[in-house]
Design a protein that fits this description.
9 helices; mainly alpha; elongated; 259 residues
Length: 259
């Protein structure tokens, strides 16, 4: 089963790589690797997956020319400002000019940031509203992920547990890539970046998580009902035992009085 599912997942990731959608391919790869490790509890699978991912990254670096440009821009965006580093350099300029409290709403220069409404929305937000607000935005995303993990850990059904874990990992890893690795991936920030398909897919993701939360509540109510019935059964058993002891005691006392 593990071999079959790994082959199917690898085929989907390969299709995304051939389509040069490297951000989505990386997200799916990481999500599958984490779910595989949690489902099997085999560290060997995780080590093999990380090794395969590193090998694929090296191969992709030598095959795709635009990856070389993006890696060079990530290493030193100012040295490659006119050859691939313009995007990340403008992003850093915007974050630096915003400071802790920002330049003010509608007082920034998001037009100087390439694709500010999608790929670099975080830089535009930081420039106008400030680093403090941006940190609060990150904490909100982390809080959502913690809630996803809490729901996953309390679910008893293994399938539902893995679904919650996978969706939560997909969400937080997308946030991580958008904020920390925009030069290499170019994915959207959920519920923040412009894009109808991104908004729809994120809403579906949260809807499924909400459904799993309801399932968790039902399971908890069922466990509580079973616990209540068990306690009631134990109380009834103890009461019957006391009644039998009291009945035996009265019979013994009556016999001794008659004698």
């Amino acid at each position: 089963n593990v071999v079959v599912t790994t082959a199917v997942a690898a085929a989907h990731v390969l299709i995304l790589v051939i389509s040069t959608d490297l951000g989505a391919a990386l997200i799916y790869f990481v999500v599958y690797l984490i779910m595989l490790y949690v489902a099997t509890r085999q560290p060997l699978y995780a080590v093999a997956g990380v090794g395969a991912g590193c090998g694929a990254a090296v191969i992709g670096y030598h095959i795709f020319s635009h990856i070389k440009v993006r890696v060079a821009a990530w290493q030193d965006p100012f040295a490659t400002y006119s050859n691939g580093g313009y995007q990340i350099a403008q992003s850093l300029f915007a974050i630096g000019s915003g400071g802790w409290f920002g330049t003010g709403l509608f007082k920034g220069q998001p037009d100087t940031i390439p694709v500010a409404e999608t790929d670099l929305i975080f830089s535009a937000i930081t420039e106008e509203i400030g680093m403090i607000f941006s940190l609060c935005l990150i904490l909100i995303c982390v809080s959502c992920y913690v809630m996803f993990l809490n729901i996953a850990m309390e679910l008893r059904n293994q399938f539902y547990k893995l679904v919650a874990l996978g969706l939560g990992t997909c969400y937080i890893f997308q946030v991580f890539l958008q904020i920390g690795g925009v030069t290499l991936t170019g994915v959207t920030l959920p519920f923040v970046s412009y894009g109808g398909s991104s908004l729809l897919s994120t809403m579906i993701m949260f809807g499924i998580i909400q459904g799993l939360y309801i399932v968790r509540e039902d399971e908890e109510a069922e466990r509580e009902e079973k616990r209540r019935k068990k306690l009631q059964h134990e109380k009834n058993a103890k009461r019957r035992e006391r009644e039998l002891k009291d009945g035996s005691g009265r019979k013994t006392k009556k016999k001794s009085t008659t004698s």
